[in-house]
Amino acid sequence: MTVPRKRRKVNYVNNRDFYNAIVEYRNKCKAAEAEGKQIPVMPRYIGECISEIAKRYSTKPMFSGYVFRDEMIEEAVLNCILYFHNFNPDKGDNPFAYFTQVIKNSYWRTIRNEKKKLYTKFKMMIETNISNSSSAVQEHDQQIYNDYIKQSEGSRKYMENFIRDFEESERKRKEKASVPKEEVDES
């Protein structure tokens, strides 16, 4: 009877190869810059690695339920390319961790922006309901108002709760941003 072998986990991005490709590309960029030539195009392998990391990270439970997941991935890949030059191979040899962090931050920014858009839409629908009596209501606003009225009570409650929660989280975020960081005593 043979004992089954443990299957070796195959990583979807080989960190060592990814690192070597980045170092090689950065060296080509430095050489082109020194010669006054145009910076070469990023190798396909680096782009594929970044794209694969972004796609896989979007399947984490905290990000997988959003309907705008494709937009999150696109925005994350773009951010990785924009901040590519900030990765310093001399300081660290883990590009996977660096780009994963860039992707995570990008996802949170995208979620915040999408929630802001949804907040604006819901707020407009509710305010249109309140100000519907004015004669200045445009045709577009009237359609939004009619859609709002047709919605079930549960949907309206959801929108009102979403608005309340969004405004509360924005208030807390602004309060946190306005508080100066305390200086740490070195004594």
Account of the 3D structure:
There is one protein chain. With 187 residues, this protein is mainly alpha-helical. The protein has helices at residues 15-34, 44-57, 61-64, 69-82, 95-130, 139-150, 153-178. Helix 2 packs across helix 4 (69-82), helix 2 (44-57) packs across helix 5 and helix 4 crosses helix 5.
Short description:
The protein is mainly α and 187 residues long.
State the assembly state of the protein chains. single chain
* Number of β-strand runs: 0
Shape: extended
The fraction of residues assigned to DSSP E strands is: under 5%
Radius of gyration equals: 24 Å
Query: Low-confidence parts lasting 5 or more residues at pLDDT below 50?
Result: 183-187
End-to-end separation: 66 Å
What's the rounded overall pLDDT mean?
83
Question: How would you classify the helix and strand content by structural class?
Answer: mainly alpha
Provide the helix percentage.
55-70%
Counted by DSSP, the helix tally is 7
Describe the largest sheet. none
